[in-house]
Design a protein that fits this description.
By secondary structure, this protein is mainly alpha-helical. It has helices at about 5-10, 15-25, 45-55, 60-70, 75-110, 115-120, 125-135, 140-150, 160-175, 180-200, 205-215, 215-220, 230-245, and strands at about 5, 30-35, 40.
Length: about 250
């Protein structure tokens, strides 16, 4: 069974002009070329064209694709395609997380500043690895893995609780309510419950996290969202006050 250029173009979503060009550079040529110039493609030709499409999705130049059509089996090409899709999936998930982060920053601050957009848009795999190494400077591998799974990075739906808690602290600061006020106690109580949930009851892990959180430099090194010093101080004072009352 043979297919005309128009039929092939329709089935494979390529232009007739592209098919003609592939023929000219001897990338994929039709099995039959009639006297009137009409090109007819066999099913094997269509198979080759599909292989070209898969390799093009890897952003390879046509001269390399031409060689690969000879050297690689369809199984090898499909494996390369799957690997490429997996890389795209990771990049897409990273972009989604960054977008969630920007949304939460907007909720917290009411605006987005270019200097906070820039590191999000430029974050690379190398930068992420450096951040992981920074975590490993102060924690063991198991703790870092748990943090990567559970740590609120202001980029997941469940971290809405953390966002709201920080906003409550900011509201108290703006309205003049101190950490020893009733509102401060409620915030401290909610934060302890949320920390218990986030860190799975691991007091050591929670303590190490907050030690890092209190340091702007360390927070930046590990890639944590920047929370202002006055918010951190309010939270610490509120927790100290609440725990002090409990000991009385």
């Amino acid at each position: 069974m043979y297919f005309s250029s128009g039929e092939v173009a329709k089935q494979l979503s390529v232009s007739v002009r592209t098919l003609r060009y592939y023929d000219e550079i001897q990338l994929v040529q039709p099995s039959i070329r009639e006297l009137n110039g009409k090109r007819l493609y066999s099913e094997e030709d269509l198979f080759q064209l599909q292989k070209v499409s898969l390799l093009k999705s890897l952003s390879l130049p046509l001269h390399e694709i031409k060689q690969m059509l000879t050297d690689l089996s369809i199984a090898e090409i499909l494996t390369m395609h799957v690997q490429n899709l997996e890389q795209q999936s990771v990049a897409l998930q990273t972009s989604i997380q960054h977008t969630h982060t920007l949304k939460h920053i907007l909720e917290l601050e009411g605006q987005l500043k270019w200097d906070k957009l820039l590191p999000l848009s430029l974050k690379t795999e190398e930068q992420r690895e450096k951040q992981r190494e920074a975590w490993l400077d102060v924690m063991n591998e198991g703790q870092v893995e748990q943090l990567e799974e559970d740590l609120p990075k202001l980029s997941e739906k469940e971290t809405k609780k953390w966002v709201n808690l920080i906003r409550r602290v900011q509201w108290c600061l703006n309205q003049g309510y101190g950490p020893t006020s009733e509102l401060g106690e409620l915030i401290a109580d909610d934060l302890l419950l949320l920390s218990e949930e986030t860190f799975g009851g691991d007091a050591e892990l929670m303590g190490q996290f907050w030690d890092i959180r209190k340091s702007p430099d360390q927070s930046e090194r590990v890639g944590l969202y920047p929370v202002s010093a006055d918010v951190i101080q309010f939270i610490e004072a509120a927790i100290d006050w609440l725990e002090g009352k409990g000991e009385c």
